[in-house]
Amino acid sequence: MPTASQISMVPVVVDDDKCIADKGCRTCIDVCPLDVLWINEETGKAHMKYDECWYCMPCEADCPTDAVTVNIPYLLS
Amino acid sequence: MAIPDDIKVMDVDVLVIGGGTAGPMAAVTAKEKNPDASVMLLEKANVKRSGAISMGMDGLNNAVVPGHSTPEDYVKEITIANDGILLQKGVMAYAQRSYSMIQKLDKWGVYFQKDETGEFDMKKVHHLGTYVLPMPEGHNVKKILYRRLRRHRVKVENRYQAIRLLKDEAGVVSGCIALGTRDAEVIVVRAKAVIMCSGAAGRIGLPASGYLFGTYENPSNCGDGHSMAYHVGAELTGLECYQINPLLKDYNGPACAYVTGPLGGYTANAKGDRFIECDYWSGQMMMEFYNELQGGNGPVFLKLDHLAEETIQEIEHVLHTNERPSRGRFHDGRGTDYRTKMVEMHISEIGFCAGHSASGVWINEKGETSVPGLYGAGDMASIPHSYMLGAFVYGEICGENAVEFARERDVPKLDEDYIIAERDRILAPLKRTDGIPPSQFEYKVRRLVNDYLQPPKVSKKMDIGLARIRAMENDIPYLYARDPHELLRANEAQHIFDCAQMAAVASLYRQESRWGLYHNYVDHPETDNENWFCHVQLFKGENDNMTCRKREVEPYVVELDDEEKNAYQQLRVQAG
Ligand SMILES: Cc1cc2nc3c(=O)[nH]c(=O)nc-3n(C[C@H](O)[C@H](O)[C@H](O)COP(=O)(O)OP(=O)(O)OC[C@H]3O[C@@H](n4cnc5c(N)ncnc54)[C@H](O)[C@@H]3O)c2cc1C
Ligand code: SF4
Ligand code: SF4
Predict the structure, then answer these.
(1) Which residues contact B489 (CB under 8 A, 6 or more apart)?
(2) In this structure, what DSSP letter does residue B550 have?
(3) What residue spans of B218-282 are helical by DSSP H?
(4) Which atom of ligand 2 is nearest the CA belonging to A20?
(5) B492 touches ligand 1 (CB under 6 Å)
(6) Residue nearest to atom 5 of ligand 1 (CA)
(7) CA atoms within 13 A on the CB side of B372
(8) How do residues A28-58 score in pLDDT, each as one tens digit?
(9) Which residue of B lies nearest to A8 if distances are taken between CA atoms?
(10) pTM for this one?
(11) Within 10 A of B300 (CB to CB), how many other CB atoms are there?
(12) Is residue A61 a part of any domain in this protein?
């Protein structure tokens, strides 16, 4: 059963310039109830890896550097 | 046979599954009652920000506070709102502890609104009594619970999804098997007593937006607990009494009667007219809501545009900063301002939830399920309309009783064969190299639920829906996960699949209509008290068939007179 990949516009955006994941921060990744934020292997910064968001906002509220912005998912906006 | 090395086994006295609201309270209470007991809290996400109250809460929806109401008043109100089908003793046990729980939380630092004299500032939203206590600064609940967990040295294991409960030869629950959501590690937690606090089943239906995670409930609550309880042999109840809520269209957050109602907001039709007497969520209220939505006066709106600037600012402060803070962004994106526009509302997808409705795993007034050693609290259990405070109270009740149960018990024996078979079943999607992605499987089940199982319920439609959902059993051996995260979703999807069947089987069994929209059965439009004044219990029967039976409603502890019984049947505003 062959599979294909589809792209999807994700609601949560991390500002790479502000994110201090390279200094060991994992706060947003720790708190997300749906476990959809992971480290981007290429940039070393946090990013939304899976488009499965409840737009609940702990990631944004708890980020120490205000790097995270939660938008409303496109299908709802 | 021994347990293979790749399966880590941990031993505790009391295991709590789900660290949202009820779970932390259960774990802390067990430790308070017996500080020598080892207590583990297992959470799929992270207890710091998990569950329905991840960002906080706007208020208590069901506070029984002396001077405003008595436990008897409250039991009556919920009996009526629930069309008489409930374990009154269970609601009474909640009501009697409601006030002491508020005092405890107040002492712990949870902020409740108080009036000038320092008394709790109670508001009337229910049809008959006064039970709402606002928490405009309710953001810190999770922080406070977390501090308590640390203080009592509860062992917290985050990012494990409990998947199956274990039992010993005598049929007593003896722990669970769980999956690491980031590394696909399979673990066994052996426990002398287990308390399930895994929340509602909020991912059975598909939100109208089509976004799988745009549900009313925190989507981490997908019905794992309901499925686990079913497979271990516990009874579930009232599953035909769906949870359906009146929400903001597309955003799927509460609209919200409890916050705006006391400040003068209300539910209106397209003409701006009130059409229901009382915005408290009940099946009867939802029926009127649905009729208005479908009729010529729809859609339905939350009306605030008549309120003073000051009041609107107060509402915005609560609704845009507290329990669902992205709501302000949603309105901004649409250009909706409460001052000038009514806000469009809609009805939610279906789910199982005792917190708002009455559907879940059967428990009694001690929090015991029908399987020894297994307790349940909060949205996944069966005490109706229990909301946040009910989750806390039953968390406390279960914590007390489970730790006593564990005290009397030896370390249970594990069933190695079952554990190995389960490990293989749980990990199977990760071993494949292609197949059906969990998201597609999940979408399909949930779409069938919407097409065939949503009310108005029709026998023929439900038969087709059930047959089509059951046919998806054949797809399970093809589920394919590329990484541990997708494996989590694959296992969730199988629980959603179980819950979807439960919704159909229970709905087809109760051949009458009851609870307004929740069980509006077109083939049997009348309420039939002669044959159906009973609970419907669902369980795994002979040959593993999903089976239902009737269970008598136990004698009431608080009697109702005839006029009271009908109070929730007359919710529509009378013309003239
Ligand atoms: C948007 C919203 C607004 C609400 N507003 C109010 C309000 O204003 N007032 C009020 O009184 N009530 C309100 N409620 C209801 C109230 O929040 C809930 O009734 C209550 O919090 C339920 O507590 P719980 O412990 O049962 O579930 P939750 O707090 O949701 O916790 C369930 C936990 O179980 C975890 N879990 C699930 N499956 C597994 C598994 N397999 N393994 C391990 N862990 C698992 C989840 O991650 C979650 O942390 C609201 C609910 C929602 C969704
Ligand atoms: S919390 Fe903020 S700083 Fe830390 S990893 Fe996430 S985005 Fe980066
Ligand atoms: S908004 Fe919630 S679900 Fe979405 S990424 Fe942030 S914490 Fe996770």
Answers:
(1) A52, B438, B439, B442, B481
(2) E
(3) 224-232, 257-260
(4) 3
(5) no
(6) B57
(7) 12
(8) 999 999 999 999 999 999 999 999 999 999 9
(9) B211
(10) 0.97
(11) 27
(12) yes
Q: Is the ipTM of this complex over 0.95?
A: yes
Return the pLDDT at B1.
66
Domains in chain B, please, with CATH? 246-347 (3.90.700.10), 428-542 (1.20.58.100)
In a domain, A25, yes or no: yes
Over the stretch B504-532, which tens digit does the pLDDT of each residue have? Answer: 999 999 999 999 999 999 999 999 999 99
- Residue A32's domain comprises 14-65
Amino acid identity for residue B209 in this structure:
S
- Does the beta carbon of A37 sit less than 6 angstroms from any atom of ligand 3? yes
Contacts of B330 in chain A (CB under 8 A): 72, 76-77
Q: Which ligand has the minimum distance to the alpha carbon of residue A26?
A: 2
**Cα distances (Å, whole numbers) of residue B247 to A41, B251, B267, B289, B508:** 39, 8, 11, 11, 27
Q: Is residue A5 part of a domain?
A: no
- Whether residue B177 is predicted with pLDDT greater than 60 in this model: the reply is yes
Is residue A54 in some structural domain? yes
Ligand 2 neighbour A20 (Cβ under 6 A): yes
Q: What is the CATH number of the domain that holds A35?
A: 3.30.70.20
Question: What is the average pLDDT value for chain B, to the nearest integer?
Answer: 95
pLDDT of residue B576: 46
Q: Using CA positions, which residue lies closest to atom 8 of ligand 3? A: A32
B214 secondary structure, DSSP code: -
What is the pLDDT at residue B561?
85
Residue pLDDT, tens place only, B529-563? 999 999 999 999 999 999 999 999 999 999 998 87
* 8 Å CB contact of A72 and B478: no
